[in-house]
Amino acid sequence: MNTRTVNSSQPVNGTTTAATEKSCPYSISRRLSWLLAVQTVVGLGVLLAFIYGATSMLFAAKHEEELRSYTHVLVDVVQEADTLGGEAEVKARLAWLAERRPGTFVEVQRADGSVFYRDAEPTFNITAAATRGMDFSLSTQEAGELKGKVILDCSQDAKTARRMAFLLVGAVLAGAALVGWGTYWRVRCSFRPLLDLAAQTKAIDARHLGQRLSLQEPAEELQPLIDQFNGLMQRVERTYAQLEGFNADVAHELRTPLANLIGHTEVTLSRERSVQELEETLHSNLEELHRMAAIVNDMLFLAQADRGVKARRGASVSLAELVRQVVEFHEAPMEDRGLRVQIDGDAALSMDEPLVKRALSNLLGNAIRYADPGSQLKVHIAREPAADGSSGDSVRLWVENSGPSIAAEHLPRMFDRFFRADAARCEVEKPHHGLGLSIVAAIARMHDGFPAAESHDGRTRVGFSLRSTAAA
């Protein structure tokens, strides 16, 4: 037995562990911080890369302009020197220019490829990547056609560009860190109302169902959630109060027959009784037991209806004929009070016939109980369109009686369990346990309908609707 228990528990524990690992919570603050930091890196990176590229292009344009202007100067100087002094003067002028432009290197070749002029050894590597060159050609009287090349030292600008690149990368990283930290701090501050709401929610229990959520500074984004939660708590509080009241009512309703049973039994056992007296006691106890059984059966029926059990619909039946059958069952109490019944209208509908008869019997019994003696009861049957506009239709049935009006504030609770509007409407001689109209409402819901009640000017109408199978 122990081995089976251990083996059977292992998959459950494994499943629980896997579920826990899958549902591991994450920090919204950290996630937003990382996301905004990444966005900052991307955004600033693109922007600063554009700036770096534009700067590099400006450096290249600057170098190109320097080479072009220096090339023009060389050509002009060489042509002027060639006119004045020939080849020797040209070389002297080129050497003079080289001394004044230390960041450049000039080499001139004749047409046959021999070196006509070459600057002294430069102070920079002329083959390095951080150099730019430009070719030029000119014609002299003594040396003929010459081809030259000017090389410009760009190492300082390249070094400046590298420093700028490091600075921009540092700016991107610093900006991302600043944005991430700032976002984390601001989100944490912004989540303080949620922490307050969580603390308020934690304080709510069965003893404090009336407590509601609130914020000192209402937040527009959180207010709908607060309103929905407060509405939910209001419904929970109302349901809890109804449940407590229902339990108290059930205990009260069962306490009376139990007290009667105990009292009768104790009195009977207090001394010797004849067989006839014992039979009378047993008959009295049997009535109380029947009453208790009726309460329990009605409660079980309501519990099934609350679980969503639907009515078993059969063939279409005439409602007017069902009403006549129920009226015949109530002939005796109606004759005692001198009441008459008028049936207006008729409709055939697929329904659960026993349930509808039970609802009609409860409505008619309720109307007989509170109707003025010698008055007339009216049963109205009318077919009407579905309330939600769907296909098919529904049938509305009312039982109307003349008698004391019901206060408007009591009408919404007419179909609550064990509800009685006031003591004047309760009969002492023939007490009833207050579940009749609740059963009517349950039967209406089982037929996809709803109950209704209205009372004014000494006329009270209580009824329910039944939806057809097409409408349902």
Helix-strand layout with pairing:
Layout: H1 2-22, H2 28-100, E1 104-110, E2 115-118, E3 131-140, E4 144-153, H3 155-190, H4 192-202, H5 223-269, H6 275-306, E5 316-318, H7 319-329, H8 331-337, E6 340-344, E7 348-350, H9 353-370, E8 376-385, E9 393-402, H10 436-446, E10 451-456, E11 459-467
Parallel strand pairs: 6-8
Antiparallel strand pairs: 1-2, 1-4, 3-4, 5-7, 8-9, 9-11, 10-11
Helix pairs in contact: 2-3, 5-6, 6-10, 7-9, 9-10
Number of helices, where a helix is a run of at least 4 consecutive DSSP H or I residues? 10
Task: Tell me the major beta sheet.
Answer: 5 strands, mixed
CATH superfamily of the largest domain: Histidine kinase-like ATPase, C-terminal domain
User: Biggest sheet: strands side by side, in what order?
Assistant: 6-8-9-11-10
Q: Which class best fits the helix and strand makeup? A: alpha+beta
CATH topology of the largest domain: Heat Shock Protein 90
- The rounded Rg comes to 51 Å
Q: Can you tell me the number of structural domains?
A: 3
Average of per-residue pLDDT values: 80
Helical percentage: 55-70%
The CATH architecture of the largest domain would be 2-Layer Sandwich
* Strand tally: 11
What is the global morphology?
A: rod-shaped
Low-confidence stretches: 1-12, 14-21, 423-431
